[in-house]
Design a protein that fits this description.
It is a single chain. The chain is built from 15 helices and 23 strands. The radius of gyration is 24 Å and the shape is globular. It is of the alpha/beta class.
């Protein structure tokens, strides 16, 4: 049995449904399932996992890996629930005292997370020179006076030199035994945004432990010896051990999974992807088979951060979006659609009903049209008109969103995925064609199942004679981080290298961003 091709399970937890797929060694989908996402998320995960295992039967012993994309971290921040208390430590006095840590945070989130904040001497200039040596005694005095579950350490220009953060991390580990979140591993340039991301990361350690424990336990309960992985926000994977250290990297994994799954299922590397769910529609752009990343700071739960996220535009349109005489949404029946929509025998008009009335429905929509036609016999003329107008409004929303994401390029195809993809028309202005790949309704789970492991480095280097050697070192560090995340060392490649010259410095310098990715190690 050990010689049989290895199977993989991809699971993606969405706002309405939790999707699961089983892929064989060649990437073919051999089982798939959709189950409603439950309030605590974990039960929906177990139900979707059980559904595909039942379809596999005795073949489940061949499962070697399980990849999970989850909304746990995002939900915890948005709902201010399950977050740890963080001691927030900035190495940057006296240069950065004018704007204290967490100054721009919403009051309720700051109250839930912060165990105390301090700015102590330390940090570097942009060219790598020290501002001052770290005051380790000041660090001790601060930590002696707070009760925290974790510590977030942010040093000025740590992407240029992480020396001070590493020094303080060693001290905290040796003397206090607390987990430490260090900013050079999480964000890029931009002190406040990088600090915010680092604090959120530290606050999510408990949530990450709950997720990974739940996944590991679910696999063990079902007798699966598969190795678990979590999806990251750039469409790649990391081991559960890596996720436990960098849980903030799982935020945005859902849209990234959909984009990667769309590329895999369609065979198209450069396209606009429209993922229509039950509650919302996410639009993103594929560039070389990977999500186009956002160039702007990303706001999570009212907090600006600068870690890498897919460039996603979300609109309030989904299969469960409620339809009324004055318009559509933004509210949705969500996972209750199977009870409340007209096509399922309910009495709430939704976008699914409007699409079916317009002649749009998925291939497996058994009985939908017949049930709707039965209801339409007794439907008022006003409601008939309401359903018709809803489709026109939704189409306008999609056209406008596509135009905003296309940046004027009209030669790219559009890949329609998600359980509500049937809502989209077959012709959309601004794209060359609309592609509807097989298994599009579970593209997000497919994206989790086929993902690579990755690592990245964002740093500042001298533009002098040693530039080439420094860039090679940055490539090696990015590759090493990919291996730490679970990649096979023999298969790691540099997939992105960006150099940006920096002006107004005493010595010429460049900002370098390197991303390495590779298949998972066996």
């Amino acid at each position: 049995m050990a010689d049989l091709p290895e199977l993989r399970i991809g699971i993606d937890v969405g706002g309405t449904n939790t999707d699961a797929v089983v892929l064989d060694a060649d990437g073919r989908v051999i089982a798939k399932a959709k189950r409603p996402t439950t309030p605590d998320v974990t039960e929906g995960l177990r139900a979707a996992l059980d559904a595909v295992l039942a379809e596999l039967g005795d073949e489940s012993v061949r499962i070697g890996r399980v990849m999970l994309g989850t909304t746990h971290a995002t939900n915890a921040i948005l709902e201010r629930r399950g977050l740890g208390r963080v001691a927030v430590l900035r190495l940057g006095a006296p240069a950065t005292t004018a704007v204290p840590p967490l100054s721009d945070w919403p009051g309720d989130l700051r109250k839930a997370v912060s165990a105390g904040e301090a700015i102590v001497p330390g940090g570097h200039y942009v060219d790598g020179r020290e501002i001052s040596r770290p005051d380790l005694d000041a660090v001790r005095r601060f930590l002696d006076g707070v009760e925290a579950d974790a510590v977030a350490v942010t040093s000025v220009f740590s992407p240029a030199s992480s020396e001070h953060e590493r020094l303080v991390e060693e001290l905290i580990g040796a003397e206090y035994g607390l987990p430490v979140s260090v900013s050079h591993e999480i964000g890029s340039l931009g002190l406040l945004e990088r600090e915010n991301a680092t604090v959120l990361n530290a606050a999510l350690y408990g949530v990450a432990g709950h997720v990974t424990d739940a996944l590991v336990t679910a696999l063990a309960e079902r007798g699966l010896g598969a190795k678990p992985y979590l999806a990251q926000n750039d469409g790649t994977l990391m081991t559960v051990e890596h996720a436990a250290r960098l849980p903030v990297s799982t935020i945005g994994s859902g849209p990234a999974n959909s984009l990667r799954g769309a590329a895999f299922l369609s065979g198209v590397a450069d396209a606009i992807v429209v993922d229509v769910g039950g509650t919302s529609t996410d639009l993103g752009v594929l560039a070389g088979g990977f999500p186009r990343e956002s160039a702007a700071a990303v706001e999570i739960g009212g907090v600006l951060t600068n870690f890498r996220m897919p460039d996603i535009l979300a609109i309030a349109l989904g299969g469960g979006t409620m339809v009324r005489s004055h318009g559509i949404g933004p509210d949705s029946v969500g996972y209750r659609i199977v009870r409340e929509a007209l096509v399922f025998g309910g009495n709430t008009m939704t976008m699914t009903d409007a699409a079916v009335a317009a002649g749009r429905s998925p291939r497996d929509a058994e009985g939908w049209r017949e049930r709707l036609e039965t209801l339409r016999r007794d439907m008022s003329e006003e409601n008939e008109d309401t359903l018709e107008r809803a489709v026109a409004i939704a189409d306008e929303m999609v056209v406008d969103a596509v135009d905003r994401m296309a940046f004027g390029k009209t030669d790219r195809p559009l890949v329609a995925v998600g359980g509500g993809a049937f809502l989209l028309p077959d012709r959309i202005p601004g794209v060359s064609q609309v592609i509807r790949p097989e298994h599009a309704e579970v593209a997000n789970a497919v994206g989790a199942g086929i993902a690579l492991a990755s690592g990245r480095v964002d740093t500042i280097l001298s533009a002098g004679d040693s530039r080439s050697e420094a860039i090679e070192r940055a490539k090696e560090e990015a590759a090493a981080r990919a291996v730490t995340a679970g990649a096979d060392p023999a298969g790691v490649e540099i997939v992105d290298l960006l150099e940006v010259p920096l002006s107004y410095l005493s010595e010429p310098a460049v900002r370098v961003h390197v991303k390495a990715a590779g298949p998972l190690a066996r």
